[in-house]
Amino acid sequence: MTESWGQFKSFEGKKFDTLDAEFTKEVSKLLGGKDLTACFQCAKCSAGCPVSDKVNIQVHELMRMLLFGLKEVLETDMVWLCTTCYTCQERCPQGIDITDIIFGLKNMAFKKKITPPGYVAARKSLYDSGKLYEPTEWEREDLELDDVPELNVEDTRKVLDKTGLMKLEEGE
To answer: Measuring CA to CA, which of 71, 113, 131, 143 is 20 to 30 A from 104?
Structure first.
């Protein structure tokens, strides 16, 4: 496992004082969350996950944490490093919409200001310039590339405004 960004590194040595049934109810209201209790921990989701060796908990562990009402799930790498490939969802014998649940968890985490370093800055950069990364002139020169063509940022902003990406925080 690689170094994780979140406060929650692993289950090792972790003591959970209380289980929050209200959190489980909240998650069950997310898109796909209605089938949350159908998970019987077969781990087929984790076995097919392309990022399973990069995260601090596996998909099936995430599902168990949700069932137990452990809010710490929002602090895990899996929530943000999920590639949304839908492999877990396709492999689930219970037909649980796992990827959809993870999308909802990302939104919940973001609203609680639990994000990986750089996420908010990347979101702002995408809105301001239409790019996640602004290459420098010397980087392009080293690669013998032409200048980056001008991008119509207004089109990008329209999409981001329409999807609400820039208004996910509470009170925005």
So the answer is: 131
Q: Which residues have CB under 8 Å from 39's CB, separation 6+?
A: 60, 63, 64, 67, 92, 94, 96
Q: What is the CATH number of domain 21-111?
A: 1.10.1060.10
Q: Quick one: average pLDDT of 55-71? A: 90
- How far apart CA 90 and CA 128 sit, in angstroms, is 36
Residues 116/80, Cβ–Cβ less than 8 Å: yes
- Sequence-distant (6+) residues with CB within 8 A of 168 are 107, 110, 111
For the chain, which residues make up each domain, given as ranges? 21-111, 119-166
11 falls in which pLDDT band (50, 70, 90)?
Answer: low
DSSP three-state, residue 82: coil
pLDDT at 4 over 80: no
